[in-house]
Amino acid sequence: MRKKIVVGMSGGVDSSVAAWLLKEQGYEVIGVTMQIWQEETETVQEENGGCCGFQAVEDARRVAEQLEIPYYVMNFKEEFRKSVIDYFTAEYLAGRTPNPCIACNRYVKWEALLRRSLEIGAQGIATGHYARVKRLENGRYVVCRSAAASKDQTYALYNLTQDQLARTWMPVGAYTKEEIRKMAVRMGLRTADKPDSQEICFVPDKDYAGFIERTAGKPSPEGNFVRADGTVLGRHKGIIHYTVGQRRGLGLAMGRRVAVTEIRPESNEVVIGEQEDVWTDRLLAERLNFMAVPDLEGEREAEARIRYNHRGAPCTVRRTGADQVSVIFHEPVRAVTPGQAVVFYDGELVLGGGTIVR
Fold first, then answer.
1. Which candidate in 51, 52, 101, 201 is catalytic?
2. 296: left (phi over 0), alpha (psi -120 to 50) or beta
3. What would the DSSP string read from start to end of 143-174?
4. 52, 101, 104, 144: which one is catalytic?
5. How many C-beta atoms surround the C-beta of residue 133 within 10 A?
6. 8 Å CB contact between 280 and 288
7. Taking phi first (over 0 means left), then psi (-120 to 50 degrees means alpha), and beta for anything else, what does residue 156 get?
8. In Å, what is the CA distance from 263 to each residue of 57, 98, 229?
9. What H or E segment, with its residue span, contains residue 16?
10. Catalytic site residue 315?
11. How far is residue 324's CA from residue 318's CA, in Å, rounded to a whole number?
12. pLDDT of 94-149, one tens digit each?
């Protein structure tokens, strides 16, 4: 009996080819687009699209017709609002810089979609992520780096559970982006030349502060720019407009380039320092999730990425609490940002990761 796999189809070329690859491999494939945009009208969805707008649904539907596979649109608005939008807003209001894609992957694209897929008799789900899933000799499931280094998406997948990974297919991870587009052209898929989405899907205009204020129903209050010792330097527009390491858009006439080094939500202050002040050789992380190993005891050497586009840096990871690790980098790294993830690697394997607290 053929395995039935639900493919999350975003309307892009990667998920389109993922569905085709699995069908070619003999799986029974069902295409699903997750309806997550909060507005009801098609006009609003199309204008605010990203991977969840009306045009994405139409592109995915047409690809499913070309591939001759069943296709459905499933409503995940409530799950997306609770797990992504509310989290995104709360983190910014608390002076942290969240990564909504990590939350969406764990709690919506996997937890909610996988549950719904199992309910309709599927054995698992597949996506168009540039990553690979492998089962190690110790029985653990792990995410591995993609064959396309420049497109690798493992950073945003570190928080998946063992149960989720055991039921996950990522067929695109074995290929480069160029190879995926060539396959799409060869198959005549309408998404073959569709450009990649570069923005957060629910904030396509990149006005995060405006989105947060609308969602929270109130403006972010102005406050003081200060030095680390509390000396007032000027006024800021509200802490949601800033992130650690930011140099542009500060509106301060300092006569030299300065940067945000800390955000203090309790006093509504944004701390300004020199360029060298945003470099550090250590951080603390909590809310841990491990993949290649069941847990971390003592300490071990690893490579760590502190943001999505960070190339990674060698470090020592040390257990310091029940749900806490400290990370000591061999050389200083720039702009360690509370709220972002730190993800640990052993070569191509994701060891695990956590959320940076300081």
1. 201
2. beta
3. EE--S-GGG--GGGGTT--HHHHTTEE-GGGG
4. 104
5. 23
6. no
7. alpha
8. 39, 14, 13
9. helix 13-24
10. no
11. 9
12. 999 999 999 999 999 999 999 999 999 999 999 999 999 999 999 999 999 999 88
